[in-house]
Structure formats: C-alpha cells, structure tokens
Design goal:
The chain is of the alpha/beta class and about 400 residues long. Helix content is about 20%, strand content about 20%. The two termini are about 35 Å apart.
Amino acid sequence: MIETEPSDNAISRRTALRSAAGAAGGALLAQSAGAAAAQSNGPDFGGWFDNVSNFDGVVDRTGQDEVTVTVGAEGNNGNLAFGPAAVRVDPGTTVIWEWNGEGGGHNVIADDGSYDSGEQVAEAGYTFSHTFESEGISKYYCAPHQMLGMKGAVVVGQVGTGGGGGPPDYGNFFQGVSNYDGETVDARGQDEVTVAVGSEGNNGNLAFDPPAVHVDNGATVVWEWTGEGGGHNVVANDDTFDSGEQVGEEGYTFSHTFESDGLYRYVCEPHVQLGMKGAVVVGTDYPSTGGGGGGITRPENAGAWLTIFAGALLGLFMIPFGFAAYMRRQYPDGVPAYPEADPPDHPTAQEASAVDPDQVERLDHDEFDPKGTLSLVLLYLAILVLMWVVMYFVEFLGGPTVVG
C-alpha cells in the first residue's frame, strides 16, 4: 500500500539531490506545519493563486463566528500577503481583516465589488470586516499590490469539498504547462490508463498527455514514450514512483498501480522547468492536496536575484557613457591626433598662421559618431544576452535549477 500522508509539500528527495530547485522544496517543507492546517479538499480557484507565494491550501475555520485574516503578512517577497491566503468559513461568519502595519499601505477589495475597505491604510491594528451570508467563493485583493501576488479568497460553505463536485485544486503546480487547459480527464472505470510521454506541448514534444487524469483506486497508469523530445523520465514529487534514468526510446513503458486515494504530482526531471509535469487523482473525491506535494515553485528570494541582475545589467549598460563623459572632461577641446608624449616640432608663429585650419587633424566633439557609440552599447547588450543564454543551457543540461 502506498501511504499518502498530508506532508505533501515535500519535493522528491531524488529530485532535490539532482537539482538546485530542491532549495525551493526546502522552503515548502519549512511551511509544512502551517500547511497541516489546510483543507485536504478545496475548490478550483481558476489560477487566482498562481503568483501567490504563501498559498498552501484552504485553511478550515468553519465553526467560528468570527475569523481574522492578517493584512501585511509575510509573503510575495515582502510583507505583501494576506494570512491565511485562503480560508473556509460557514455562511453567516464575519471575516475581520486586521492590518499589522507592515509592507506599506494596503486595502481589501472584493474581485466582484461586493466589499471594499476603501483607501490604502498602513496603520497597525486597523480593521475591516464583512459578513458572508451565501455559499460560494469570494476572491479579493490589495489594489496597490495585486500584481505582486497580494490576493486572497474566502470559501463560504462546503464548496469544492469532494464527492466529485468540482475539479481538484492543483495550486500553482500546472503554472506554465501549455497543454493543461484546466481539465482533469475522467478515466474512472478503467483498470488501466495510458499517458503519453513526449507529447506535443511546452514549445516542443515536452509534455505528458493527458497532463491530469482521474482514476479509481487500484487502477494502473502506464506511461508510454513517444520517442520524441529527447530523453524523459517520470518521477513523483513524493517518491511514490520513479521510472529511473532518462529514456528516449519509442514504445518504452513504465507503470504504477495506485492503491491509495490522493493527488499524485509528477515531473520529467530534465524538462520540469519547461513545463513537463503531470498529475494523477486517485479515488472518488477531488482532493486539493495529497501524495505528490506542492511541486517546484519559485523561491522567495527570486525577486532579489532579479533585482541584482537588473542592477548589474544597468551598470554595464552605463559603462560606455561613463567612458565618453570621462574623455570629454579630460579633453575639453578634442582629442589630439598625435600622442602628447611625443609631439612634433612646434612651428613658428609665421608658419602657424599659414596653416589651413581645415587640415588640422583633431577629433573634436563635432566629429562625434553616434552610430559608433550605439554599436558599442548593442555589443554590450549582445554579450549580456549571450551570457544569460549560456547560463540557461548549462543549467538546463545539468538538470532543473532555480535559475531560468
């Protein structure tokens, strides 16, 4: 029997050893204590939480008349989150948003306009409340920080709690998977289900087809290689199954029988960053978490690394302009055509007066060539792009990493 304990945010130990992306998995493991309080079943938020770093499931607060959500909680590369990001309450419950004074000014605005806290507030202890009377999903956001991932949701009632009543919630797992259209293929009633390895998708033959499938407990999933897209493998994020080394042979198969209900996420290790990921839902219900963990996500400090890279790029971009400014200050009347250390014989005053000024070889500012400077700038940019491409492919050939 395969155990599917809810410590599901763990990245495959094998995957972590092979790739630097295991660092992101470590961050998820550090959050597993909070995730234990999350709902095992949840609704489909339709990509609402795709860029929300602190979303790890729906936290169950049913049975409480009042529920508090922190505004300015840690997340999204700063204090730019609601904590918890998603909460389930009973109809008639009042949700109180309480500001902690961190992360600047925030507000709370319902996506459908049903409630609005008004202007941005940065004061610690400030509160805003709303009572939810009807069942459903209420999505909301902080207007100034929505694009950074400061979003939340209130699930009212038993929406998406299983029983086949709605699709599973994969969290951010399928973000960037081009052949996943939000549908989970229902293959229940079949003893054996085939998934193609190396199907068209993700800008090549770098996909599983179907990417998400729902099977009965006891069903066997057979992964069959198409022979396209290079070498692939099939590795569960929680180590419940592993096809081994990469294979590129057409017709090669790997199978696994699922004997415990749950949600099993898996990847092709060499192509995970390109979107080659899949999931198997096992059992009658639609769990939002389960065997397979939360997948590989962007680390919390990705924004800092992006800022450093952008700063370095800007600094290199300014080098030719700085050099030009230095030369202009050093030679305000233009750069002499001959070295100052070895000047020619000085002419007499009479000889100098007879010299045609148009024939004096000086590189003054009127002869500045903008095309030459532009060419130098473009050369710097080309070198930077080339370095970035080389970094990407070196890391790609070595396995999935944080960069890229």
